[in-house]
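Hi everyone,

Forwarding the result from last night's run.
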Amino acid sequence: MPRLRGPGGRPLRVAHLTTVDMSLHLLLATELKVDLESGFETYGISAPGPYVPEIEAIGVRHEPLHALTRAWQPRADAAAARELLAVLNRLRPDVLHTHNPKTGVLGRVLGRLARVPVVVNTCHGLWAQAHDPLAKRAFVLGAEAFAGRFSHAELYQNGEDRRTLARAVPARRSRVVGNGVDLTRFATDPGERARTRARVRAEFGVGPEELLVGGVGRRVAEKGIGEYAEAARALAGKARFVWIGPDDPEKPDAHGAESGVEFLGARSDMPAVYAALDVFVLPSYREGFSRSAMEAAAVGLPMVLSDIRGCREIGGHDEHLLLAPPGDARALTTALDRLLTEPGLRGRLGAAARRRATAHFDQRAVARVSLETYAAVARAKALPWTVG
């Protein structure tokens, strides 16, 4: 794709805004790399955190918002808004690309107030499901509809979210882009994978004949950890059950659901961890477009996911994976039991998941859609950008 340049041929300044630095590192790493490869002056704006050195190591300039938190807190949010406005006025980016529910709302509004030429938002999943209370759904959809009036383009990771907001966001400004992962990171030859699998399983204390079931994500209740633990207790003796992911200091609500599941904390060697697993599970209550499930698919793991928006996009039930209703421990147990007791099913679904990931879950393709969107908005606004 031809390189975009800013006014006068200077490098285009692109800023990505997320709530926490973990999102920049884990969700947007490939997109940030594509921006850098495109010659952009690339910024990441978020609350400070432990992932900042890794973000900056690839060439991204990080701008911290010290008052920013995940939770909606009026006083802190007002302070974070002032910080963000000051950063935007200082950086003068050509593009502000917002992500996450909270920063998506704040960023779109403040981006327009700061006269950023191109404001684009990616909806990584509406922070409300059909089973949520009416008040929460009204707040989330109202906030998204309001903020959507301030962006120049809206990108959706799944079609259900786009349809939900179709009356608020005109079709000409919206596009479903899907989601993806760095497929090359999970492509290993069989011999190397076998050696890695043996090493990591030995580290976990898992025997060569044991089945290992694992989930990946923040250790919070909305990931369905309570139901997972209940299923693990019901299936004790058939497999070992683990969970990999960081604690969330703002949401320690899953810490009472530990019996039956071994919590291994955050890991940086996820391809190796997936190689050690026999079955992947994600009984989440809400997802935008599950990254961990895409990663599991990329390595060919059979999986059980919640039957929700953001997981259904990973594949079809009994074709690429198994689906179970969210919050239903009995259904989750039944689905996991099928995979644990039917090796042929594990092999069939794992191979199908791998084929689907290869065909549909390439993060670089998603990143290229962002670049196309920036260029389309610039053309529509007759901005003095050039193509080099």
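The two ends are 10 Å apart (CA to CA).

Cheers,
N.
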